């Protein structure tokens, strides 16, 4: 039997290859315009892509910059706030999930929570967040509030060896807890509009968050009434043990970066193990494998295009790279599906070119081949992923009381 | 030559302005309400749509307030969504300088300016109290003076960040591989006891260069901030002579900082009630006021001031003859909580006695006294007079219903203003919000 998967896309600038902006099909002077993002995400929506993630970073250099590089003039620089781009896209799209990147060290968790709830309202239930832990020294200099934090990756390459990174992940966990608690703070039916008694809401059904953590506290309820999904979809990218545990404990969807099908199976097992140990969330953690793709009409043309990009700026990436025709990509998807992942998040090497290939070739062919989940009319992102809408923890308490 | 009227459209927020009990009142949170409101305001050629901010749900005597509308969207996120469904109208949100950070808020506003193609605005407010602070990492931590110092430094830093990219920073030369021009981005450093920032901004210069800045405070500090930084003042001065005096005072401060009279617009909040005759308008005004101030609303208002339980009092009777409980903070989240309670009560008694008002009528007088009541002709003439005689540059108009509270104004008053020749008959194609409002403020380009 064929294993079925979901297809998502990850969007960033002119694409994931650092030389992508130099391609003739690129739109490098439009990367911060409304039209660019509208075109990309509408195309993905029309094709049935289950969700789009939108990258972000609170620095000019991006999150993976070389510490001493200064401003690189040969790379795309400049971006828009991802949560606002997603909010802008909400009324312009119909089914696609909108998942902005959200960093957890400096922004106020209360603003993040109400922003995500508002995205869920404006999109009628298609909001998510990709949670990013930690901060770079550049980010700290931009905010100027906290001097402490990670300085690059530890020499061992493992974040679990660095107390600053451990703290960053604990803080990210608190931010997710706060987002979920605030989302739950209004029960579904808190607004009663009882003209007789003059009460707009039933205050017994609105609950203060009363969140007390190691890094911050939030006393009040959300200002935003309950949104269509109940809680936004929480996602995280994870490469290592601490991030795997973080995702297992806090996320609904984890993005993993296997080098191939075998490694995918190993990681899926590790993530499931971590989930068995630490997970409180009621639903099974969904696993999406990341795949960086460059797609041309022939294998030779794809290799040639890739070589042209690499000659200009060699890529450094965490994700497995698939270069070839739509059929090549579909084979990779099929293999990863067999390894047990729930979905694939495709990272187009070049935008809009490789996204166009995904929407016009990969998805229709993969769908026809029966390897995609049915693109049914499920209205919310959670439902499209087979996840139930979340009910408020406070409502649940009443039922059990 | 007659002066041009400017109008902002205020989406009614969470207070007793909104009559949620009206059978035609819609949702305060569904996006469709905001979309309807924005499209109608755009049909009326309003300069901008205006949103207040919520940072904590109001409480009354230690419990969440339940009589008026409560709950609203995140300001920036809803404005970004509205940018997608509108083309010309400005999008202005209230955002606190106390519970935001300059780098983050400047990038969000620049983002909104890109997404809206030059229609973003920021109503900069300060807030300091521990009640709201309890929802933030910051906590409540600033006294009045530091609050405005932080606001001024915040605005200054935001402007420097917005100006830090050269206009032509993005070269995107595929052949040479230069995406950015040399010296395309200026470093912005600022050290004080309030901020310690050494930043490189990450959003390219936006269509307006710097988003519009609106200011709402009325204190001396507030007026200084407005003179230095604001493009619009959202004032509460609507009584004609008082408004003229405020106008003279604020506009008189501009020359000293090298600004022109028109570079700072004054748009006080204004409500309205229309009728086919003056009598009909007055009757409707009374009906609406009674709906805005129901008996329990009036009693609650007094309880907030006195911090006592008045549930036994008759709203149609006189003010309670008791002393306030000043032992603790009472009306959490209401704007009046900083007022000196006793002088406030003395004032309430004075008004009530002079005009022989019951509790409910007193509260109506204070919170539901509609600015313009009359036939569309009378209202249009009134608005025009304020602008022509330099009492205001226009108004921030708020209706009492959501989301269609400005439909009637758009249908019946706007055409008359247009006939008078003092209101636009179309938006200028591709105009930014600054251009629509006619305020200058393009920064000097950063030279390489």
Automatic annotation (TrEMBL), chain A:
Binding site for FMN: 56, 101
Domain Luciferase-like: 31-308
Keyword annotations: Flavoprotein, FMN, Monooxygenase, Oxidoreductase
Molecular function per GO: monooxygenase activity; oxidoreductase activity, acting on paired donors, with incorporation or reduction of molecular oxygen
Coiled coil: none
InterPro entries attached to this UniProt entry: Diverse_substr_monoxygenases (IPR051260), Luciferase-like_dom (IPR011251), Luciferase-like_sf (IPR036661), NTA_MOA (IPR016215)
PANTHER family documented for this protein: ALKANESULFONATE MONOOXYGENASE-RELATED, C2H2 FINGER DOMAIN TRANSCRIPTION FACTOR (EUROFUNG)-RELATED
Family listed: Belongs to the NtaA/SnaA/DszA monooxygenase family.
Protein name, UniProt field: Alkanesulfonate monooxygenase SsuD/methylene tetrahydromethanopterin reductase-like flavin-dependent oxidoreductase (Luciferase family)
Lineage: Bacteria, Bacillati, Actinomycetota, Actinomycetes, Micrococcales
Automatic annotation (TrEMBL), chain B:
Cross-referenced CDD domains: Nitrilotriacetate_monoxgenase (cd01095)
Keywords: Flavoprotein, FMN, Monooxygenase, Oxidoreductase
Source domain of life: Bacteria
Domain Luciferase-like: from-to ranges: 21-390
Family: Belongs to the NtaA/SnaA/DszA monooxygenase family.
GO molecular function, one term: oxidoreductase activity, acting on paired donors, with incorporation or reduction of molecular oxygen
Entry-linked Pfam families: Bac_luciferase
Binding site for FMN: 94, 144, 148, 219
Name recorded for this polypeptide: FMN-dependent oxidoreductase (Nitrilotriacetate monooxygenase family)
